[in-house]
Automatic annotation (TrEMBL):
InterPro entries, alphabetized: E3_UB_ligase_RBR, IBR_dom, Rcat_RBR_RNF14, RWD_dom, TRIAD_supradom, UBQ-conjugating_enzyme/RWD, Znf_RING, Znf_RING/FYVE/PHD
Organism annotation: Trichodelitschia bisporula
Descriptive protein name: RBR-type E3 ubiquitin transferase
E.C. numbers: 2.3.2.31
Keywords from the UniProt entry: Metal-binding, Repeat, Transferase, Ubl conjugation pathway, Zinc, Zinc-finger
Ranges for domain RWD: 8-137
Region of interest: Disordered: 302-345
Pathway it works in: Protein modification; protein ubiquitination
Domain RING-type residue range list: 172-455, 176-222
SUPFAM superfamilies xrefs: RING/U-box (SSF57850), UBC-like (SSF54495)
Family assignment from sequence similarity: Belongs to the RBR family. RNF14 subfamily.
Matches recorded under Pfam families: IBR_1 (PF22191), RWD (PF05773)
Length: 498
């Protein structure tokens, strides 16, 4: 009769838990994993590196976990169950996130339930109690932030949480926001930062085309609402974060395309840095080696987790500005012994090494490296070549600077509402004034501004007769004065005062 009761109860339990496994050697022994997905996600903190002291708050990392490793149930129904003997339970946790004392307490719960229910069948009741306990992670986290004892345990739990979330995602169906078709999770990608979902085929085409065209600023989450935040009653701004190289690899882009993406991002940052120094060799002209912009190889674990800028660029490391060579002090009038000259305070500020041809040269005078004891002077504007001067004059006369980043812009056609290609600031082409992105055309209707009614000046790109103001007008005025003075000097002749 007892065997029949055990077999009957096990048959019922197998129907409720189809994932339950019966021991091949003992028909009354079974194994089951109890999934642990707390209703309230667990916030953990753990040592930032192996060997870090648990109490060292300065070197601890944190994470939020929605899934924890399961506990393994090894349960046997002995002879005499349920009339005279309770079930035998052995619980284990291979990842060791549950204390041994808690496992012992949960094991003893089976006997307590058997006693409370008057020596009756309690397998379902016990397993259900474990599942209810799993909703609170068995009360193992006793504080809002669960302090883990070791770095390795933190990494193990984070990895399990990620794999569990991915497994659940792969088993679901998601609507792609690009092709608008339902796709299985295994063919879709969910972005790490924002959680938006698109199918991988659409993302590969979208990002591959953008990278081929060099439009790295468009390698963003395609969702139009991603990153929007209010900056005023009627104004919003989109914080743009470009996609991590590792995430592009996960989407399925080939390594060559991702390497080009990384190189283009670095190139854009170099071009935007007004203090970047380039190799003086005409056949090279590569940027110097810099901790600010290190070359980025393609690695699966590469990450820009700190991306917070409009383009998602990671904050560069601080780099000391170039210090001009100091003026040598007057020599001492009396000396008893010849002392060696003292080096400049920071000679490394002047030493630059080309990242391509490895030329070591001076940042100030652009000559090959002359050592830290030689004083040099920066090259003056008079040393500019005629070609460089002509190029500089053209930029001053025929472009309008962005009011935010000063990048020069030249209009080919259209209205005078401009958007900077570098920082996406809205500004007026005529006066370089910042424009409100929410209503950029209000600027051209204000009666107190000289740009009123001039929205379409130089619509076809021909700037003759256009009414410029601000920096553009000042440069043109200064240029005209300089030309007039040069013409007057030519008429009067050298050595004659006017």
């Amino acid at each position: 009769m007892a065997d029949d009761e055990r077999a009957e109860e096990l048959e019922t339990i197998v129907a409720i838990y189809p994932e339950l496994q019966i021991d091949e050697k003992d028909q009354f022994r079974f194994f089951l994993d109890i999934a642990v997905s707390p209703i309230n996600p667990a916030t953990i903190s753990y040592p930032g590196s192996s060997g870090t002291d648990l109490d060292d708050e300065n070197d601890r990392a944190s994470a939020i976990l929605h899934h924890l490793p399961p506990i393994k149930v090894d349960m046997t129904l002995p002879e005499g169950y349920p009339e005279s003997n309770p079930p035998t339970v052995k619980l284990s946790d291979p990842s060791a996130w549950i204390p041994a004392s808690k496992l012992k307490e949960l094991e003893e719960l089976a006997t307590a339930l058997w006693e409370d229910y008057g020596h009756s069948m309690i397998i379902f009741t016990y397993l259900d109690s474990l599942q209810q306990g799993a909703e609170t992670a068995f009360d193992v986290p006793t504080t809002p932030t669960w302090a883990l004892p070791t770095h390795d345990l933190g990494i193990t739990l984070i990895a399990f949480n990620a794999s569990s979330a991915q497994r659940i995602f792969d088993g679901e169906t998601h609507d792609c926001g690009i092709c608008l078709e339902p796709k299985p999770g295994r063919l879709s990608h969910r972005f790490n930062g924002c959680g938006h979902v698109f199918c991988r085929a659409c993302l590969k085409d979208f990002y591959g085309d953008a990278i081929t065209k060099g439009e790295v600023a468009n390698v963003l989450c395609p969702d139009s609402t991603c990153g929007l935040r209010k900056i005023g009653p009627k104004r919003t701004r989109r914080t743009k974060r470009t996609i991590d190289p590792a995430e592009l690899l996960a989407i399925g882009l080939d390594r060559e395309a991702v390497q080009r993406y990384v190189d283009l991002k670095r190139k854009r940052k170099l071009e935007a840095d007004k203090n970047m120094v380039y190799c003086p060799r005409e056949w090279c002209q590569a940027p110097i080696k810099s901790a600010k912009y290190p070359p980025q190889p393609i690695l699966e674990d590469i990450s820009y987790a700190s991306d917070t800028g409009d383009e998602g660029e990671a904050e560069p490391l601080a780099e000391a500005p170039v210090q001009p060579a100091p003026v040598p002090a007057e020599p001492a009038t009396t000396t008893t012994a010849k002392e060696p000259p003292k080096p400049n305070k920071a000679p490394d500020d002047r030493l630059a090494i080309c990242s391509k041809c490895q030329l070591a040269f001076c940042r100030v005078c652009k000559a090959s490296w002359h050592g830290e004891y030689l004083y040099c002077l920066p090259r003056s504007a008079a040393e500019l070549s005629a070609e460089d001067k002509a190029s500089y004059d053209f930029v001053l006369l025929h472009t309008s600077p962005c009011p935010t980043c000063s990048v020069p812009a030249q209009k080919t056609y259209g209205c005078n509402h401009m958007i900077c290609p570098q920082c996406e600031t809205h500004f007026c082409y005529l006066c370089s004034m910042w424009l409100d992105p929410g209503d950029p055309y209000k600027h051209f209707s204000r009666e107190d501004l000289p740009c009123q009614g001039h929205l379409w000046d130089a619509e076809d790109g021909n700037e003759e007769g256009a009414q410029f103001n601000g920096p553009r007008a000042f440069e043109a005025m200064a240029m005209a004065i300089a030309e007039a003075e040069a013409e007057l000097d030519a008429q009067v002749g050298p050595g004659v005062e006017s």
